[in-house]
Design a protein that fits this description.
By secondary structure, the protein is of the alpha+beta class. The chain has helices spanning about 15-25, 100-110, 120-130, 140-145, 155-165, 180, and strands spanning about 5-10, 30-35, 40-50, 55-65, 65-70, 85-90, 130-140, 170-175, 190-195, 205-210, 215, 225.
Length: about 290
Amino acid sequence: MRVPPVVYPVSSLTEDIEVVVCRYLNSKFPVTVFTSNHAFLLVGYQVERNDDGTHSISFLRHDDGVGPYKMVNRDELDGYGDWEYLVVPLPPKIYMVAERAEAVGEAQFDTILPTGSDVDRVLRARMNAGEVVVRTAAVTSNSFKRSLLKRGYSDEVAMKYQTLQMSRYVWVVELTEKKARNAGEACVYGEVIIDATDHPESARPLAWRTPAGMGWSVTDRDLDQYSETYAMDNPVYSVITHIHPDQDPAKSHAGTGPVEAPAAGPSTVTPLEDPPASPPMSHDSE
């Protein structure tokens, strides 16, 4: 069963349009933009470091009137006029939108960080200061599990995640240190895994991790389990794969070897690609 595309009237958004779009582009889902007289497709984005140390975002778009892979910056006047609607076709069986998943993940962090380890409580304070933020993306659970050791998880944590039953698609809400993220370094101190195929009103985490330990829900039972056996203070690399604004483009961020920098243009473009294939519901988702 395929659900209708998600439609966002830009005038009704309660957060920056860049935030909404990037959640889906991080998931490698294209976003169609409608103006009053035209439509085009956003397939990636570029983060640039400004002279004052801040960062700005430009989008990579396919436009049948101009051609593919053209950059557009919303801080500048778009010749097509104001962006009026964002439309996101989700893969089959993803029923939960990105912002709902992120809200569930943030609520989980709000609950567990204040009562966790010293490192957990420091992360909570750094969230309040804006140094640590959440970043959300949808992935297949198989690709999430395959990437764990390569991204720096301990053998114990990786094995536990790999043995948990998960839906085919999951939303991953990462607890991310901004400075390390922008440098393309290990930056993720925890994550909440949410069933992307669940009903939005009954959403609950499948699993979660902070430096203090790891918790998970028991399938088909209203029961959560938690263990400090899986405590892990060191950060890991993000499940979101792209080159970062302060990163050397000759280096990858996930231990997969060097990547080739583009022959021309900025090196921080996040291109769209199809999600990895995954078998149906194996229960084996910035």
